[in-house]
Amino acid sequence: MQVTFLGTGSAMPTGERMQTGLLVEGEAGPLLVDCGSGALHSLAATETGYEGVDTVLLTHHHLDHVADLLPLMKARWLAGAESLRVVGPPGTGELVEGLLEVHDYMQDRLDLRLREVTPDEAPFDLAGFSVDAMETVHSMYCHAYRFTPADAAAGDDAPVFTFSGDSEETDRLARFADGSDVFVHDCSFPDEVDVDNHPTPSALGQVLAGHDYGTVYLTHLYPHTVGTESEMLDSLEQHYDGEVRFAEDGLTVEVE
Fold it and tell me: What is this structure's pTM?
C-alpha cells in the first residue's frame, strides 16, 4: 500500500500547499480520500491521474475537503470516463445532488454511485480496502478512517494506514489508530494559537504517548505553522517519542 499527499494545507491557502487530498493505492486499485481545492491538480500530476480514480471517500463536507469534487466529475467526463463512486458520512448524497443542482449541465454526465457510511457498519470494503470509520471531534460531523487490504487474511501482518480527517486530539482516536504503520493526523496550528476543532502539537503529543505507530505525519497545516515547524516537532516530541514528520504535497510514502 502507498499513500500520496495531494494536499496538506487548510482552508487558508499558503501558496505552497493544496487543500486536503490523499491518494491511497493498493494492489486492487486507487482510492481518493477527500478532494479539496487543488487536489485535482495534484492528482493529475500522478501516474494514476484523475482518469484512474473511480472512487472518492470523504471524511466530511467542509469546503476545503470537497471543493474539487465537481471539477473531478467534469474532468473525468471530458476524459471519457463513465462513472464515479462517492462515499462519505451521512449527507454525502445531498451534498453531491446539491452541487449538480447548481451546475445542472453536469447532471447525468456520469453514472454516479453514492453511498453513505457510519461507524456502526464498519468495516466496509471499498476499492480493495477494508475500511473502519470513527466519528471525530470537529465542528462538522467527520470521520477518521483506518485502511487495510481487503484481501488480507486473518492474522496476516497486513499494512495499516489511518487518517484522522479533521479532529481535535482524543484518546479514542489515538487508540483507533494504534498499530498503524502510517498515521496521518491533523495538526493545524502551533501551540501559541488558542484553537478548538483541531490539535496543537503539545496536545497531540500527549494523546499519542504510549501508543505504537510506525510514522506519524502532520497535515492540514494553516499559514500559522510556517516557520514554526521545528518548534512544533520539539513540542510534540516532549510527549511522544515515535517518528513524526511533516507531510508535504507530492510526497509518496510506503505503508508496510
Answer: 0.96
